[in-house]
Every structure is written in structure tokens, then in C-alpha cells.
């Protein structure tokens, strides 16, 4: 990535940080000089790079080594001073409105995350405590809106996809928007942008006000998948596990489009939860879909689930080929069942409290070489536990592909090794090889992909 034009600027907040107490202002100011500063700087740089076709956090950080952000206290609250910031985030010297909103959302989330960790009410030693923590983070971001009937559709899929797959995701988003459904994604490019773009047009056709385009991300991935400008609610969760739990707690149904290892990670996380015996009766519509060109991909993913987790896992989702209208119809029908179920059980519409998520899905997984090599990938494990471990394997590959820390580990220690039963390793290796051949590991047009892993049976 070549050095781009830069600009110095002073930016004041608009939105959730306009009205602050003196204690909150002091807390924000301290971030500028504390250990959290590095994290905020990285997230800020990613947001200012929105629209850049780069999926390597290390590359972006190195291209803007001189970028700096300072948090200053003023009478009204806080102000950000930016030095050597990407000029594309500005028009005639003024920061683009969506960029400014997301920049201060990042500051809000990072500060609140740090402050909550020291709060006596936070208990991260139990599963219920972790869920409560996720709830507080989402509530502070004003994401939870009681009284609204289930209409939030989560869309998962890759950032490295073909033009046809991107257009198809827009068509599905358009059909969802015509049915007045809101969209939540990982907030980046590709499938994370397409459904939002399609829904935007449809919401305009329906003269719908207050449409929500919710983007959920985490610090390790945001630099590689900078938020797309359609996102009007950005929430940065502290790690991938909190982000995944947020998806399934606030989303009422999930559509999975073509993608790579990140999409597979999300899919396996979801299946692992839905396969838990406590969740067998919980309605949660899940649809795999894509254009005709993606039929092989969808079949490969379906076959992989059957070979590793079994037929019961395959029953927890539907597959719809090349039919955006049918996808939206099935999702709408599924949401009716969700609405009925939650009313009967007196569960909240805005946060799925009844869904059982075990600690194994909530504890952060640090993909060191030792941790990746020691993952238990055996056929004798219960399906939901095997799904959790497969999810961790894919999470490690994502880190080695796009995250700054993971990339540096691969450079220092070489490729990850993934060990397990041959009956699992063979379909895993076949699926990963298909991702490589279909250019789903990295954005096309860049440096040829070099695997950061080695599958060992």
C-alpha cells in the first residue's frame, strides 16, 4: 500500500458524546495518554480508511505510521486532534458525516469497555456474567430498543467475493428492505455492504424512516474490514467472541452468503450454539444463499457440515439458490415464529436472553501456534463442542490472514499446524483448498495468497 494524501484536522463529536459529565470527559482524556491509546488509534485509522481496498491490518498501519490522534478536553466535552490522517475521509476540509459518527462511536465503545472491566457489577468468570457484559456494551451504544418486534436480519458473508455475489447480496437486501426489515452485518465491504446498500434503496421506496444498518466489529478485525459508509450504528465489541454473541443476541434471523474462513467461523459458531440440547426448541431462522455461480461453494459448506457435525446440524438451516425473493419470504416467515415464541416465553424482542451459550463459545481464543496445534478435533466429541473447536481453528486462520498480531506471528514462527482425526482433517483440508482456489482468502488483485496454516491428520 503506497502512502496516500494526509491532512491535519480538529473534529468535535456529534451524537452520543455531545453531552458528557465531567467525570466522563476526564475518562476520555485519560485514554489519550494511557495503554488504551494504541487500540483507539488503530480503530480510528481503520475508520478513516473506509472504502480502501486493503484487507491487511499490518499494511494499513505501516502506510500511516505518522498518523496520530489526541483527545482534548473542552467545555462542551471532548475534541479530537488528528495528525497525518487519510485525506479521503474529508471533503473540502470537512470530515464526512458518517466517518465522524463512526469515529466517535469507536471512542465511546473503547472507553466504555475499559471502564466496565473495572466495574464491580461485571463478572466475567461465569457464562451469565459474560452475557450481561455484552448486554451492557450494547445498551451503552443505544443498540437495544425495546418494544420493536423482531425485524433485525443478520447477514454474514465474505469481504473477498465476486461481482456477481456482491450484486446478489444487494438483491437480497433489497427484498428484505421492501419487507421493512433492518440489516446487521460485520460492517465491512463485500457481503457486509451489499445487503445494506440494497435495503437502503428499498427503504427509500417504502418511505421508511429510522432504518437501521447495524455494524458489529472488534478491534482485531476492524483495520482489515473498515466500516462501510452505509453503517449508521457502529458497535466495537472487545473481542471476536463478544462480537459473535452480540450477533446472535440482537439478531432475529441470519442469512449466510458466500465467504471464506471468516464466514465459516461464524457459521460454525452459530451451529455449535443451535446444536446445544438446551436450544433445540428455540426458533432461529438460518438461510444459506447465493447466486447460481456460488452453488458449488454452498454445496461444499453443506457437505463439510455433514461430514463433521452430522445431519442434525444440516437440519438447522435452509439452502436457497439464486432466489432473493424466496430468501426474504422464508426469513419473514421465520421471524413470525420468533415473534410468537418470544411472546409465549416472555423473552425480550431486543435481546435473546433464552439462547443458551456455553462458556466455551464465550472465552476469547488467542490463536498462538501452540493453541492452534492443540485444538481437540475428534469425532468422539459432542457435535456442539466439535463445532466450537472448528470455529477456533477458522478464527486462527482469519488472524493469520488479516490481523496485525496474527500476521506477525506467522512471519516469526511460520505456519499454524492444525491436527485432528483424519475423518475431520480431510474435509477441512478440502474446504480450505476450495477457498484458496476460489480466491476467498484475500481480496483479488493483490499479492497471491500464501497459506498461514497446514492441516495435519
From TrEMBL:
Enzyme class at the top of the EC tree: hydrolase
GO MF, one example: AMP nucleosidase activity
SUPFAM superfamilies: MCP/YpsA-like
Domain Pyrimidine/purine nucleotide 5'-monophosphate nucleosidase C-terminal residues, every copy: 336-456
EC number per UniProt: 3.2.2.4
InterPro entries referenced in this protein's UniProt entry, alphabetically: LOG_fam (IPR031100), LOG_family_nucleotidases (IPR052341), PpnN (IPR049788), PpnN-like_sf (IPR037153), PpnN_C (IPR021826), PpnN_N (IPR027820)
Catalytic reaction list: AMP + H2O = D-ribose 5-phosphate + adenine
A single Gene Ontology CC term: cytosol
Boundaries of every Pyrimidine/purine nucleotide 5'-monophosphate nucleosidase N-terminal domain copy: 10-116
Pfam name, any one: PpnN_C
PANTHER family named in the record: CYTOKININ RIBOSIDE 5'-MONOPHOSPHATE PHOSPHORIBOHYDROLASE (PTHR43393), PYRIMIDINE_PURINE NUCLEOTIDE 5'-MONOPHOSPHATE NUCLEOSIDASE (PTHR43393:SF1)
Protein name: AMP nucleosidase
Organism: Stutzerimonas stutzeri
Amino acid at each position: 500500500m503506497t502512502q496516500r494524501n494526509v491532512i491535519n484536522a480538529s473534529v468535535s463529536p456529534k451524537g452520543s458524546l455531545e453531552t458528557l459529565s465531567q467525570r466522563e470527559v476526564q475518562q476520555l482524556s485519560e485514554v489519550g495518554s494511557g495503554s488504551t491509546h494504541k487500540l483507539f488509534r488503530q480503530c480510528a485509522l481503520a475508520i478513516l480508511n473506509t472504502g480502501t481496498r486493503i484487507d491487511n491490518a499490518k499494511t494499513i498501519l505501516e502506510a500511516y505510521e505518522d498518523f496520530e490522534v489526541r483527545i482534548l478536553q473542552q467545555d462542551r466535552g471532548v475534541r479530537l486532534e488528528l495528525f497525518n490522517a487519510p485525506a479521503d475521509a474529508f471533503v473540502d476540509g470537512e470530515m464526512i458525516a458518517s466517518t465522524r459518527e463512526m469515529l466517535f462511536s469507536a471512542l465511546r465503545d473503547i472507553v466504555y469497555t475499559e471502564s466496565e472491566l473495572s466495574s464491580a457489577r461485571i463478572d466475567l468468570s461465569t457464562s451469565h456474567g459474560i452475557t450481561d457484559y455484552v448486554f451492557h456494551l450494547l445498551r451503552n451504544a443505544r443498540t437495544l430498543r425495546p418494544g420493536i418486534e423482531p425485524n433485525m436480519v443478520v447477514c454474514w458473508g465474505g469481504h473477498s467475493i465476486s461481482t456477481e455475489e456482491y450484486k446478489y447480496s444487494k438483491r437480497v437486501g433489497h427484498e428484505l428492505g421492501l419487507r421493512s426489515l433492518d440489516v446487521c452485518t460485520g460492517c465491512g465491504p463485500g457481503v457486509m455492504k451489499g445487503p445494506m446498500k440494497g435495503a437502503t434503496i428499498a427503504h427509500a421506496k417504502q418511505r421508511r424512516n429510522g432504518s437501521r444498518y447495524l455494524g458489529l466489529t472488534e478491534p482485531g478485525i476492524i483495520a482489515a474490514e473498515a466500516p462501510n459508509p452505509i453503517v449508521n450504528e457502529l458497535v466495537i465489541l472487545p473481542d471476536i467472541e463478544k462480537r459473535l454473541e452480540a450477533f446472535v443476541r440482537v439478531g432475529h434471523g441470519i442469512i449466510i452468503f458466500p465467504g471464506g474462513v471468516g464466514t465459516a467461523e461464524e457459521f460454525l459458531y452459530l451451529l455449535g450454539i443451535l446444536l446445544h440440547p438446551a436450544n433445540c426448541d428455540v426458533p432461529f431462522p438460518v438461510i444459506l444463499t447465493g447466486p447460481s455461480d456460488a452453488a458449488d461453494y454452498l454445496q461444499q459448506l453443506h457437505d463439510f457440515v455433514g461430514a463433521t457435525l452430522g445431519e442434525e446440524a444440516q437440519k438447522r438451516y435452509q439452502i436457497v439458490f439464486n432466489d432473493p425473493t424466496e430468501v426474504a419470504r422464508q426469513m419473514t416467515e421465520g421471524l413470525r415464529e420468533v415473534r410468537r415464541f418470544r411472546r409465549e416465553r416472555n423473552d425480550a424482542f431486543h435481546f435473546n436472553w433464552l439462547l443458551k451459550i456455553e462458556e466455551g463459545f464465550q472465552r476469547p481464543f488467542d490463536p498462538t501456534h501452540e493453541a492452534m496445534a492443540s485444538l481437540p478435533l475428534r469425532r468422539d466429541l459432542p457435535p456442539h463442542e466439535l463445532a466450537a473447536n472448528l470455529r477456533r481453528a477458522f478464527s486462527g486462520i482469519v488472524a493469520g490472514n488479516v490481523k496485525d498480531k496474527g500476521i506477525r506471528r506467522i512471519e516469526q514462527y511460520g505456519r499454524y499446524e492444525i491436527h485432528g482425526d483424519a475423518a475431520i482433517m480431510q474435509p477441512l483440508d478440502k474446504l480450505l483448498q476450495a477457498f484458496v482456489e476460489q480466491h476467498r482468502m484475500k481480496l483479488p488483485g493483490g499479492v497471491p495468497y500464501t497459506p498461514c496454516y497446514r492441516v495435519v491428520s
